[in-house]
Design a protein that fits this description.
Blueprint lengths: L5 H18 L2 H4 L7 E2 L2 E2 H25 L8
Antiparallel strand pairs: 1-2
Helix pairs in contact: 1-3
Length: 75
């Protein structure tokens, strides 16, 4: 599998906060703001922390990839 070029990771770094903003907007959050519980925890809390954890993990992966030096061009 061919590695993605650094430009794609820079694009992903720009899109990630916008995705987080969309996922944490009140119209979407209210879908999970019901009285239901999962393992004794309200579903909205699981959703918010799940989105937060996914955003942090994606940001860490993107940052690691952007911080690595580019591969030398193959001749």
């Amino acid at each position: 599998m061919k590695p993605l070029p650094p430009e794609r990771f820079r694009d992903a770094a720009v899109i990630l906060p916008l995705l987080g903003l969309f996922l944490l907007m009140p119209p979407l959050i209210t879908l999970f703001a019901r009285g239901e519980h999962l393992f004794g925890i309200p579903v909205i809390v699981i959703y918010i922390f799940g989105v937060w954890l996914a955003l942090v993990a994606c940001a860490a992966l993107i940052a690691r990839r952007l911080a690595s030096p580019p591969d030398p061009p193959a001749d």
